[in-house]
Design brief:
Blueprint: H1 3-36, E1 42-50, E2 60-63, E3 68-70, E4 76-81, E5 85-92, E6 97-104, E7 109-111, E8 114-116, E9 122-130, E10 135-140, E11 145-146, E12 151-155, E13 159-166, E14 170-177, E15 187-191, E16 196-204, E17 232-234, E18 240-244, E19 246-254, E20 267-269, E21 273-280, E22 286-292, E23 301-307, E24 310-314, E25 317-320, E26 323-329, E27 343-345, E28 348-353, H2 380-405
Parallel strand pairs: 1-7, 1-8, 9-16
Antiparallel strand pairs: 1-4, 2-3, 2-5, 5-6, 9-12, 10-11, 10-13, 13-15, 14-16, 17-18, 18-22, 19-21, 20-28, 21-27, 22-26, 23-24, 23-28, 25-26
Length: 406
């Protein structure tokens, strides 16, 4: 074999080895790429609209575990979750919100849409009694039977009729407070457009003669029973709210605070707002409120409270597992009316300071600015090294064969 034939044989062998290496690298890359898809995250996608079905741009969509994103100009969002399970997800535009639960699995896409509807504002009507006599005040619609239950919440714009009924040996005298315009009529119509406080005065009846005959009286119509006092309640999302050193007289679950309390832009509620009225046990300075969530709260959570002076954070909060517990003093800074009247009231929610927890001003997520998952490396540099090593071995073998033939 002459040198020309040797060179031709060697060149043919090199070309064959290169083609084999290229095909092997492509096969390895394709199979490893397919294998990587088994580790893709769960994808949550959907649309946020208002009460009329129009898309809501730049709305916040977040989970109770801390994942967060924003809607685009068409109201669409995409959220990537790195673990399977049941998630509580909230969409909000700052004034209205909608909270839902959904179950996701890795490698799948789940659609979850939200609609932000206006929340009906609720106000509290409270009744107190004074004077030397005794009697009862009831309401229509039902809620107040004072008696035992002297406050209740009603939707904004509702006309509430209060009826004062004197006990035997007493007579109704007059209305006071927000009902003072009703004078000495035993009924008073009240339009609820803010929290109202009314006083009913009952006097002892004057002495009667032996021959006097009391006028016939017509008993008031029976009222539906008011909601009984209770120490705890299970909420729609499975959470449980409890009170110690007192009892609840009412609890309302809201998607947003029932009135403007100047919540900072960086504060975001991760649970619904709970508007409540709690009656404080006699001899106690306030009540302990605890919220047992359906999963442990995220790190950095706080309790936000709407008060008459605006939004405040309750700093002294105990967290044990999934339970969040805090104290509200009767008449203290976190009691809405600031009065030591035996009742603690008005809304709170579990919140996150998004700026403290790695989310920039204006809702830009510093941690996940590009929430699209990157393709996993399938060892490309390792495949190139392996191909080069194989080429060197084959060249060495072919050179040895050529020397033997020569």
């Amino acid at each position: 074999m002459n040198r020309k034939e040797v060179f031709k044989y060697f060149l043919t062998l090199v070309i064959g080895v290169l083609l084999l290496t290229s095909s092997l690298s492509a096969w390895i890359g394709s199979n490893l790429g397919n294998y990587g898809t088994h580790f893709s995250p769960a994808t949550l996608t959907g649309k946020v609209t208002d009460g009329s079905g129009n898309p809501v741009a730049n709305a916040s969509v977040s989970t109770i575990a801390g994942q967060f994103t924003k809607t685009d100009s068409n109201g669409n969002y995409t959220l990537y979750l790195d673990a399977p399970g049941i998630y509580t997800v909230t969409a909000t535009d700052g004034s209205k919100s909608d909270t839902k639960q959904t179950e996701v699995s890795l490698g799948t896409t789940t659609t979850l849409n939200f609609q932000l509807s206006a929340t009906v504002q609720q106000y509290t009507v409270s009744v107190s009694k004074s004077g030397s006599g005794t009697g009862t005040v009831t309401s229509n619609p039902a809620g107040i039977d004072c008696g035992a239950t002297c406050s209740a919440q009603f939707a904004s714009g509702t006309t509430v009729t209060l009826t004062a009924t004197a006990d035997t040996g007493s007579s109704f005298s007059t209305w006071g407070g927000d009902c003072s315009t009703c004078g000495n009529n035993n009924t008073c119509n009240l339009t609820v457009n803010s929290d109202k406080n009314c006083t009913a005065t009952f006097d002892s009846s004057s002495h009667s003669t032996a021959t006097s005959t009391p006028p016939p009286t017509t008993p008031p119509p029976p009222q539906p029973p008011s909601e009984p006092e209770f120490p705890s309640r299970k909420l729609p999302d499975g959470s449980i709210v409890k009170v110690e050193d007192g009892v609840f007289t009412s609890i309302t679950v809201l998607n947003a605070p029932p009135y403007e309390c100047n919540i900072p832009q960086d504060i975001e509620a991760i649970t619904p707002w709970l508007r409540f009225v709690a009656k404080v046990d006699e001899g106690k300075d306030g009540v302990w409120i605890s919220l047992e969530l359906n999963q442990p709260p995220p790190e950095g959570m706080k309790v936000g409270k709407c008060t008459k002076e605006g939004f405040k954070l309750i700093e002294n909060v105990e967290v044990k597992g999934s339970e969040v517990k805090f104290f509200i003093e009767d008449g203290g800074e976190f009691d809405y009316d600031g009065k030591r009247d035996g009742y603690v009231r008005d809304p709170f929610a579990i919140v996150l300071d998004r700026e403290e927890n790695g989310v920039g001003a204006g809702g830009e997520d510093k941690v996940g600015e590009d929430s699209t998952p990157k393709a996993q490396s399938s060892g490309g540099s390792g495949c190139n090294t392996g191909g080069a090593s194989l080429l060197i071995v084959l060249l060495f073998v072919s050179a040895s064969l050529v020397r033997k033939r020569i």
